[in-house]
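An instance as discussed:

___
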Amino acid sequence: MIYLDNAATTFPKPLCVTDEISRCIKKYCGNPGRSSHQLSVKSAEKIYEARSMLAKMFDGDEENVVFTLNTTYALNIAIKSLIKYSTHVLISDMEHNSVFRPIYRLSKEKLCTFDIFSTGGTDEEIINNIISKIKPNTSMLVATHQSNVGVRKLPIEKIGQLCKERGIKFIVDGAQSAGVHPIKLKSMNIDALCIPAHKGLYGPQGVGAVIFNTDKFERSVIEGGTGVNSLEENMPDFLPELFEAGTLPTPAIAGFCEALKWLISLDISKIRAHEEDLYNLTSSLFKENKKIIPYYMNDYSGNTLLFNIKNIPSSTVGEYLNKKGICVRSGFHCSPLAHRLLNTGDGGAVRVSFGIYNSRSDVYQLMDALNELSVKK
């Protein structure tokens, strides 16, 4: 099998990740923070270790690391806890539905208004597009760092500086960039960074995090048991307990912790260079087949490439590649705004996305299959 769907979830996982998940379940998986016995304490220690690793990697504070189910839950928590009702919000024109849908619903409920800014052009043009959309009551800007359908990467450091100057909360969707590009909350003026374990950080599914760079919240968005202040009616007003109600996924967090150690031991710039080499090779080979239509979002390389084959639905391409043992993703990738921007058509497009375990041989086998399919049709 050739796996080229790493933008959805990286596969396979490093052996240290699967080993630690198994060890946790077999050896120390108590309920963290709920008891004083040794299994509970060991679980709590592992979770604290993972918080520390995330804080170190993203220049945050340990107590501000909140574990979630995934990036979507992290974004919902960040958006709904930080938004000031009856204000204006900005999002980009290539946002995933995990950003668009919460904002859209809030607007439909008359709790906010929103506008979409263009990501076309240079960094300076993007900043100017944002400035042109800012209103006197703009209180929040939510933006992806890197698109999940192409290699467009937003200048989040410049956007963060602008937001700081204008008193606007800045939430970053780091689903595709965490583990690929350096992200520093404090120097980039990010109020909340939302990330998954299972993509570029090579951890397991079922856990993500929102890392806050603020302690000023408009409201809690989830209520329940936290293991502290149990006699009080309200949720604790401090992090991480404010947003961590119920039992945490200790085995997943344990695997996440080991994935972070493994990743830190490597040079992520070398991983990025490896992925870009595969991207450049694929892009050059696409040019040799006139039936392949690639969709480029920028002139630089990345790890994700979107394309169609003339007169063949993306779903047909995906099914054909699957029969050849090649895993890709077709359709709209939960990002209709980005597909509209790229004008991919009624059926969306096919996405190939590379990871550390892919090779140039994978690319050549992909091209053999695509060339074979395009000739058949």
